[in-house]
Design brief:
The chain is built from no helices and 44 strands. By secondary structure, it is mainly β. It has four domains: 148 residues, no CATH class; 95 residues, no CATH class; 94 residues, Thrombin, subunit H, CATH 2.40.10; 141 residues, Neuraminidase. Strands 4, 5, 6, 7, 8 and 10 form a six-stranded antiparallel sheet that branches. Strands 18, 19, 20, 21 and 22 form a five-stranded antiparallel sheet that branches.
Amino acid sequence: MGRSINGWTLPAGWGIGQGRARSPGWKAWVVAMGLLAGCGPREGLYGVELRTEACSGTPALEGVRYLRFRVTGVGMEPVERYVLVEPGRVEPPEVPSGKGRVLEVRGYTDLPGAGGRVVSVGRSHPFDVPESADEGRPTVRVAVRRVDEYVRPGGANDACVTLAEPRAGHTATLLEDGRVLLAGGIQLDLNGDSTTLSSTELFDPVTGALEQGLGLGSPRAFHTATRLPGGKVLVAGGEAVSAEGTLPMRNARVLDVAQGTSTAVELKVARSHHAAAVDSGGRVLLVGGVGEGGAVVSEAEGYDSTTGQGFSVSTRVPRVGMGVMAVQEGRRIAVVGGWDGTELRPEVLFFGYEGGSFVPVGEGARLREPRRDGALVPFGGPERLAYLGGYDSPGRVEDVRLLASSEIISASDSQVTAGPQVFARSNLCAVALPDGRVMTLGGLGSSTSGLVSDPHVEMLVPGKEGGPTALLGLKPLERERHQHTCTVLEDGSVLVVGGLDDNGVRQTTLGDLFIYTPVPLD
């Protein structure tokens, strides 16, 4: 006979803190709870579904004694409730009706005041709470994951979720609905020959589902994918392997995943290995890259998402291996590092949109230690960027040195200062977490046999009030990789997808994906 929890009937044997292992080796707990913030026609009605499926790692609710439900939103004070994890009647807090509510769930070993610690975390996509039951009861889905572990999503047939096509040199774009669009890339066969992909896949971090997405029209890798206002994605440039060799591409596509449409866009210049960023007005700046004949592209160009048209940029920016990122809440776009085919470029450029195009703005700045193929990431707020690792000189990769240093660029006063020491790597994946911390994952490191894929993971914690940055080494990746993607999800966790595993002898294209949830600071 089933048991009723707040009016929702669950099969016998199920409840909070209980679950079933699907097969030997699985540590997945599935918790399907009907939680209502009230009974009858009153404000703040909503249901909650906790999802904890995973095919690796510690079960999300193992050792959890209390769950904390905390709801935030515009126009309301945060409300929270601690719930003892045991079978029976439990309720998240009642909240005022309104739009844009967010539910965070934390699993504690005991109450915080009694020395309990957080071992699992989840946060919902924004949801609306109706005024009465007549308007329906929304079900809020929250994926709860173990902190400080690499968790692989579980799928059907008791197997880990894997890509339909292993890929490296692809892009990953967080969509407005919380899903992630994985686009293009390359595959290497056993002989090291590459094939370019034209497929996309959509990953849902809440359910762990992975499904086929819109096609790219033509195969491409080492392109850019920029989310535009309104949720569309501009997939631009890249390169494709053909009978004539590896050729840069001059076309782009605007993908509207929600509507299921794809629109072709013609670029002014063929380019791959370039960089792009969007400003607060929905205008995309595309810079540098490798063009026809392997030459470094000098021409920058723009794309206006409001008109669907491209436009010229008069300032020439001949660079490859640089970072490009919006700063000052999208009012400016910074171009940092890289080389022009001959020498490293120390200039830090800032662009703003004026008079129908992007133009240089602000005072110039220079890197203290010019570099290329580092990682550019926001650092402690919208005014600062960190440029991490990379190579110390132009030329062949075999002749360069990996850097273990970093630099901090201030967009407000164009100052460049020395940053923290990091693991010496190039092509590392770096992401900024919502709380200001920065994670670096993988990349290319050095060994006695030359450059190889690297497993190092580290956390950079900006110092308070200008204090020194703390550098924490985290658990290394279970499999080293580079040319992978790292994406911060809506709940603050980090999705890592694919890449190449190069051990100096053999290169393998990876088709796995996993999620890392950092330990909360508070």
